Amino acid sequence: MIAVVPGPELLARARLLVAPELNASLVRELERIAGRGAEPLADEVPGGGPLLCVGAALPGSVRATAADRLVWFHSVNAGTDPLLAAGPWPAGALLTRTVGRMGERIAQYVVGWVLAECQAVPEYVGQHARAEWRRLPTELVAGQTALVYGTGRIGGAVAGLLRRCGVRTVGVGRTAGSGPPPVGFDRVVGAGEDAEADELAGARWVVAALPSTGATEGFFGARRFAAVRGATFVNVGRGATVDLAALEGALRDGGVRRAVLDVLAEEPAAPDDPVWRLPRTVITSHSAGITADEDVAVDFAACWEAVREGRRPGLAVDVGRGY
Amino acid sequence: MIAVVPGPELLARARLLVAPELNASLVRELERIAGRGAEPLADEVPGGGPLLCVGAALPGSVRATAADRLVWFHSVNAGTDPLLAAGPWPAGALLTRTVGRMGERIAQYVVGWVLAECQAVPEYVGQHARAEWRRLPTELVAGQTALVYGTGRIGGAVAGLLRRCGVRTVGVGRTAGSGPPPVGFDRVVGAGEDAEADELAGARWVVAALPSTGATEGFFGARRFAAVRGATFVNVGRGATVDLAALEGALRDGGVRRAVLDVLAEEPAAPDDPVWRLPRTVITSHSAGITADEDVAVDFAACWEAVREGRRPGLAVDVGRGY
What we know:
By secondary structure, chain A is of the alpha/beta class. Chain A folds into 2 domains: 8-100 and 291-308, 3-Layer(aba) Sandwich (Rossmann fold); 102-283, NAD(P)-binding Rossmann-like Domain (Rossmann fold, 3-Layer(aba) Sandwich). The first copy, chain A, contains 11 helices and 12 strands. The radius of gyration of chain A is 22 Å and the shape is elongated.
């Protein structure tokens, strides 16, 4: 479902509504880009006219009473699943998102945790605390294989950085596609194909960078984990894509060597959440792909430029597909 | 002091002596390359004839009694300072060394510890142990500056990998040199020049990859550390190049943010060594640049090929300079 790009007349008349939690300096920047003053995106939107909103969430009352006037919503986050899960997206409203340097940030998160494992960073920190000088096995990541689920901007950035460290990168997409693999990938295979299982068996790293959509819920389940032979699993996508019971089973039987989970289906995890007791796992706090104010402004400006020229922004979300 | 490359007649007659600690499979490989059987490199070398030795150390008695017959020594390590420190190197004897994938390994060690710090890996591991879900500040390494001391094979490999992660890399050599900087570096400055102090002040990372020679002892001392403004210091070269008291002072006054030391002047560090109590420091066990048997064989083969053709091997050590 491709949303309609608002035409020049609508864009000119649209009121700019910004979420109250945005920093004042960012709001000033958005006002400068849109060439109009901002009003708060609150539960009540008095008055009429077309609406251009910037924020993380669309207030339920706006959705209920002013949905037909929403022409464009720019999300300050990359993941728009909370926006889309709240109900049908207002018909015809353009939804764009902030990716910013997120690909770069997530790539550094992944490579940081990958190389930290290769260099036994946590173990050396532990030895240091015990004043213990002992050589630990380390690994050269160059020549190893990483499977990266998601071949879009984020998966591509992750693969690109892994590849620059000498890793062979295999993307997993909805289909293998034709023609040469996208930048950053040595190969792309389709999810569910035999080639995926073969590559899973040979991989040292399995990186999940999938959005949360109906189609990806529990995507990493028992069948997929059963094909893994000693890879470390890193999730920088969405928690809902992983069946945690299946992951636990694979960690216990050794198919999955370690896990690094930046995302969980329910965040934050409470201290008594059993997820903390998964073996050989580290949970981080959804910190891989933070967006900075600068990212929001830069991406909004790019979308603005496209819309003004009547083009569909590259950061537009296909609200049917969910990303 | 450039050693003489043994001529074809000497090479043909040379006996192959290999250190007893080498693995049998490596010895077989060395025999295959040299086209002759190996004898043990022991304290006593009965019989005469020119000697080609492979090992980590030259036994004192061989040095005392058969130095004039030594035509070539191939070191299984990259650092040949223990060999050269044991006394004057036998005149005319070629010394070659194993670098192997050491540049690549050391580069991954450096980038692994750099990104682990950016991603707060030790802190997240600690939080995980306490079942604590809390966002910690992380850093994007792209755009930061790293000073790399040593612009040879190893420094170049370190700089190259940092650069592929988006880091601006400044090499520090004996002189700035002329012409474009070597591969991996955005810029090269000379040690002691004003430009070095300027770059130290702006650097986020200071990586020491210097060999141990008379000229580099205590190279990282109070004056140099005083120019550092918040960089993390990583030593993958030699422990003797660092004045530990000066480093401790810089860590205490905050000029140096953290330290990662893979090498110490005295290894292994005993449990009561005060080095374990340096603030914000992690010591690893000289593990960054291990050489594998495969590396020794590949590098010996390359040297053999050069010597056979009458060329000076690229891995020959200038025994006067010390590397």
